[in-house]
Amino acid sequence: AILFFFFFFLVGLWSFFFSIINIYNSAKTKDWPKVIANVKNVKLVHNNHIHGGESYEVKINYEYLINNKKYQSKKVGFGYGMNGTEDHVNLYYKLENSKKIIAFVNPNNNSDSILIKGINNSIIGILIFSIMWNSLLSIFLIPLLTKDNPKYSPKKIMPFVVIIWFVGFVLLLTKSTYISIENKVEIIEYKPDTDK
């Protein structure tokens, strides 16, 4: 029975560690210095899912100069990617006519840069999903791993799981953890005839 849950356990473990690693990496950007970057191109990628729903992602290429050496990057922020949790369309509208923007550069590796410091909705969404997913798995795994100890029966675990799922859905549906990523982007200059 444990082998049956192994795949589901890996999904839960991966999503949890993905979130934690991106939170850690985002925290490290706090002291990254600003540079002015030239926007090469920006596009909004859209994907319709077979079973309904949509995903978006802003793809951007930008370059910047440090000590007379040119660097290029495509990174928006840690954990940022195609999903339905970010406000990608507003981010695209903010960036589509930009010419010069602020990028934050890793002082230990000038080729590593981002446009958005800190945590974003992708990281929060996956963390909430991970906690909900892993709590559900605990109903099955904890009794299996504790050799049917009545102290850890599914009946005793269930109220905690229900509370976790309720709080998770409230956080996701009310968008109370929403972070406006487009407001974190700093535009220095727009293309001619498109000044905002």
Note the topology.
Blueprint: H1 2-28, E1 34-48, E2 54-66, E3 69-73, H2 88-95, E4 98-106, E5 109-114, H3 121-145, H4 154-174, E6 187-190
Antiparallel strand pairs: 1-2, 1-4, 2-3, 4-5, 4-6
Helix pairs in contact: 1-3, 3-4
Care to describe what's here?
The chain is of the alpha+beta class and 196 residues long. It is built from 4 helices and 6 strands, in the order H-E-E-E-H-E-E-H-H-E. Strands 1, 2, 3, 4, 5 and 6 form a 6-stranded antiparallel beta sheet that branches. A hairpin with a 2-residue loop joins strand 4 and strand 5 (109-114). Helix 3 packs antiparallel against helix 4 (154-174). The longest helix has 27 residues, at 2-28. The model has no long low-confidence stretch (mean pLDDT 87).
Tag the structure with descriptive keywords:
alpha+beta, 196 residues, six-stranded antiparallel beta sheet, elongated, single chain
